[in-house]
């Protein structure tokens, strides 16, 4: 697995907005085929980290490399073509399009037809190409169990379904690395179970490397291969789920233990 | 829950090809084709007044579709559409007069030239949005108007430019009767191309840029490219519509392409429905016919003694102008999605009648 090197390599990334340091010298790497989770309290810089990977933010310092190629200066659309897909924490569907068209947008960089042969439709092969890609999108729709809503306008759907459509749209990109920003936020238990199953299948069956931000600790600990913890823009722990859970810095960040208590712990230890 | 589609019972789609058709059902498709044939009968059945109205509708509708692609589908704004419309008219006359390229070819060439100009003036769209972009395109309107008045080599300056009639295989089209069919041909072709554009890759990218530009970029869409492309395609349509207008009148003068016409184009797409190809046509029909209907209303009133005094007839002429403004305001309040949406609702009503659920 590690023979080909990490698929994603983050080196000393810092992100500064005016006087606010959103990220300070964060480094980590993700191996191909891994399911990697980023956790941390609110405002810890998790989404900023994901934005640096997907290209919405350019790191103030440090570099991001994907499949061995430095992508730090690339625009988001170029990174999508290289094979990075993502979903958003706050829903970002194309609200007036139907579900199917939303998913077809994901095929954008794989489709070849353009403003010349697209309008000619039947003559320039655009129809044939569209239908081929439609077939793939239908596979995604089947996989995510949203076939009953494929013609519904995306903006009219319930929250849980919209989250699922957003995942479908990112999967349609056929990325090698998929970034999921709180895929289960605001869902009930049943929807969470479905989503966890989809993420595992994406990772194992579809062969996508997953980087996920999630607040539900049960899910994170159950399905992740490795976990990284951010707090105030710094990486405070990284490792197997159990190791991370046992880490005292992590406990402190989450539970806010008093400083003197930790000192006692250290003395005892 | 399911999508908003009104289809008869038992009419199932079994292939993706069937599911991507332009028209919902074969019945609607046949009705549309029949409708085109019915329209083609107009010159035989109705008099020249109606033929002239249809020709007006066709070149305005083509230009309005361009504006709808820019405003309705891509979510940009342009207050300079009339200037591009005028540029197309001058460009086609100029190409035809200086190089002798036949008019039927110079019309699309003028469209391409206008597309290039539109892209130039669309450059600010790569950076700015909304009101600021509106002002930037307003600049395009005034710069081009000034250009029309001064560039005598191109437009003939204040004298205007002569535009030759369309020549189809050696047959000169100089009367309304034959121009009607040229107009109908262009209208059908341009609307088909527009419809196809919107159901393929680049059309989806436009709507994606409009609905959520940040996630559009994450999905691999180059925002700058698509914003500029939208301006180019929009101007192409304006240029083709303008070129038809020029060759229909036989003469192009700079006065016609003011901001008032730009606003009228915006009125057409707002009344018809932003982001609807079909609605664009409906809105254009509405905007072209509204003054005519008002006119006949005014002349119908003149049978009354009180209405035939000059004071009243003059006043009614102004009311005609105000009616356009009133129509836009009423549509914005009561039917912001335009005639296309209203039409959809009427269809749904009769489909489900008498059960409203």
From TrEMBL, chain A:
GO MF annotations for this entry? ATP binding; ATP hydrolysis activity
- Domain of life where this protein originates: Bacteria
Q: Which UniProt keywords apply?
A: ATP-binding, Nucleotide-binding, Transport
Q: Where is the ABC transporter domain?
A: 8-257
Return the SUPFAM superfamilies for the record. Answer: P-loop containing nucleoside triphosphate hydrolases (SSF52540)
Q: Which InterPro entries match?
A: AAA+_ATPase, ABC_AA/LPS_Transport, ABC_transporter-like_ATP-bd, BCA_ABC_TP_C, P-loop_NTPase
Please name the PROSITE patterns in this protein's record.
ABC_TRANSPORTER_2
Q: Does the keyword Transport apply?
A: yes
GO CC, one annotated term = plasma membrane
Q: What is this protein called?
A: ABC transporter
Q: Which organism is it from?
A: Thalassospira profundimaris
From TrEMBL, chain B:
**Keyword set for this entry?**
Cell membrane, Membrane, Transmembrane, Transmembrane helix
Q: Does Cell membrane appear among the keywords?
A: yes
Q: Any one cellular component term from GO for this entry?
A: plasma membrane
Q: Which InterPro entries does this chain map to? A: ABC_transp_permease, LivM-like
Which Pfam family, any one, appears in the UniProt record? BPD_transp_2
Q: Where in the cell is it found?
A: Cell membrane
State which residue ranges cross the membrane: 27-46, 52-71, 78-95, 101-123, 130-149, 177-194, 228-251, 257-277
Q: Drop me one GO molecular function for this one.
A: branched-chain amino acid transmembrane transporter activity
| UniProt key word Cell membrane | yes
What is the recorded membrane topology of this protein?
Multi-pass membrane protein
This protein's superkingdom? Bacteria
Protein name, UniProt field: ABC transporter permease
